[in-house]
Amino acid sequence: MLTALRRDAIRAFLSEKKSATVLEMAKEFSVTDETIRRDLSALEKEGFLTKVRGGAFIQGGTLNEIDINLRSSVSSNSKKLIAAKCQKIIKNGDSIFLDSSTTAYNIAEQIRDFRITVLTNSLKICDLLSAYPNIDLICIGGTFSKKNCAFFGSITNRVICSYHVDKAFFSCRSASIEFGVMDSNEKSAELRRLVISQSLHSYLCIDHSKLEKTSINTICSFRELFAVVTDQPPAKNWSEFLASENVELIIASPSDA
């Protein structure tokens, strides 16, 4: 296949899938990994996609759900800053919920020395924290999603409804003043809605790149949150809006790390 034709095919492939690994695309187009990496670099220069370690994704679209293996390297510095700020919010003796976002995984890495109870549907977080006897770990089962490396569905939801936590830390796919907090996965949105209802304080952990974007499923309105933790001061209209909704705005900074 000619280079130009293959890159057109990659555009169509990613427009449908939203994200893909280098291995997937190399197999799909019967070329080497290195050829795909060159194609992705060229398409990134055009502004069509964002290249990350192991693959690529496109930003647009309300159905844009990115594989967890690719998400881990997206805005990684921002996620570390947010996690360090959340670590200061958590206290010994707390019960907390951590979702299956890569930001929540970064929080889990920060709290390994705490004496706390952690409720999570993330297999990666369960695996990480299972080695620490100081943490009472409650792993929520259900239907396993390989794309998210986490559990969702009716069983997961029933288990969540049997617990109450002091603080819930979760992320989302996008957030909008007009439409609220949103996700690209219906089951993930449903789980996060339940978690908010079962927690005393809910913290939305979101990097600045997700603001003023939309996704297909609504999680909640901002007034249902206790605080928003982000990595950069948002535009003035955001600060004013959150204040009007009685939501605390918490800005992470390098000094928190």
Key words describing this protein structure:
globular; 257 residues; 10 helices; 23% strand; 7-stranded parallel beta sheet; alpha/beta; 3-stranded antiparallel beta sheet
Report on the structure:
By secondary structure, the protein is of the alpha/beta class. Helix content is 38%, strand content 23%. It is built from 10 helices and 15 strands. The strands form 4 sheets. A 7-stranded parallel sheet has the order 6-5-4-9-12-14-15, with helices on both faces. Strands 1-3-2 form a 3-stranded antiparallel sheet. Strand 4 (95-98), helix 6 (102-110) and strand 5 form a beta-alpha-beta unit. Helix 2 packs across helix 3 (33-45). The N and C termini lie far apart (48 Å).
Rg (CA only): 19 Å
Oligomer: single chain
- Into which percent range does the helicity of residues fall? 25-40%
Mean pLDDT: 90
> Given the helix and strand composition, which structural class is it?
alpha/beta
Shape: globular
Poorly predicted regions are none
SSE inventory with pairings:
Blueprint lengths: L2 H15 L1 E3 H8 L3 H13 L4 E3 L2 E3 L10 H4 L4 H14 L5 E4 L3 H9 L6 E4 L2 H7 L6 E4 L3 E3 L4 E3 L1 H7 L4 E6 L3 E3 L3 E4 L2 H12 L1 E7 L11 E4 L6 E4 L5 H9 L3 E4 L6
Parallel strand pairs: 4-5, 4-9, 5-6, 9-12, 12-14, 14-15
Antiparallel strand pairs: 1-3, 2-3, 7-8, 10-11, 11-13
Helix pairs in contact: 2-3, 5-6, 6-7
Question: TL;DR?
Answer:
The chain has 257 residues and is an alpha/beta fold.
